User: Fold this.
Amino acid sequence: MKKAYAGIDIGGSHVKFGLCHLDGSIIHSDKADVGIGGGRDVLLGQVIDCAKRLLELSSEAGFTLESVGIGTPGIVDHNTGCVIGMSPNLPGWEGTEIKKEVEAAIDIEVCVDNDVNVMTLAEVVFGAARGYRHVIATTVGTGVGGGIVIDGKLYRGSIGGAGEFGHITVVKDGEICGCGKRGCLEAYASATALLREAHALSNDTGNKSRLSERFANGGEITVGEIFRLAENDGDRDAGNLVDQAADYLAVGLSSIISVLNPEVVIVGGGMADAGGDYYMNLVEKHLESRTISSHFEHLKLRRAALGNRAGFVGAGILKDFGY
Ligand SMILES: [Zn+2]
Assistant:
């Protein structure tokens, strides 16, 4: 029987799960909706159902599994597989002993880590950072997450809390962040911040840009629309907003680059997906001006390559590569 990897990626709205070959190619993937407000037990039940489904799928297809990996938002003690903090989008999830609970339901080892750590691992083993040993990865979407690989090894810090790039202070006493602090990178570079700034501009009645017109016509605007207005329509306000968000990301990343001197920086998440090369070029332009030249010259900036399968693929390879 051939070996395969099985992983589960817990998100705020979906639990994605899948099987992949040893080269990272997908055998099967699927997702289940997370019942909003269902609470801890409902979510844990869904995760266990996904794990059981992965075991069935692998046995039907003639594969053996050595483990099931799980990526989850929050600070995770990867030894105990317990969520020990910072999971504001999953109320009640903190304290959940995921490894213990899922292992009690399925007869196989369960490995658990933070969702951005597993995404980083997937990009290092199969994706945009393949072949590199000094890597930082960031997901820029509703929030800003981070993962760190030092000398080929995922760096988790003392309690599993390393890589919380979103909570680097970039503005002293600045905008309030979801973590309760002020001036965090997440409060300036995330999709949430971009939408907040777009709304603020739309309230300026003297403003005649396409972006403001879009608001005047009612409804909500999306990050994708703001990028289209900036890139395709040359809208000045939309362009300034995305440039500012990219610059703040560069402010945060330049500090991390000064500390860790990575070979490659991977950027994924909703902003990179919506903005594509347009966004990445802005980030690179600002990184060049904000990073010390010796570090920038030896640095590659790359968009994440594995998209939303990075979560379950990275979780699946935790046992083999997440040492
Ligand atoms: Zn924060």
Summary: The mean pLDDT is 94. The pocket of zinc ion is lined by residues 166-167, 177, 179, 181, 184, 186 (CB under 6 Å). The longest strand covers residues 26-33. Residues 236-260 form the longest helix (25 residues).
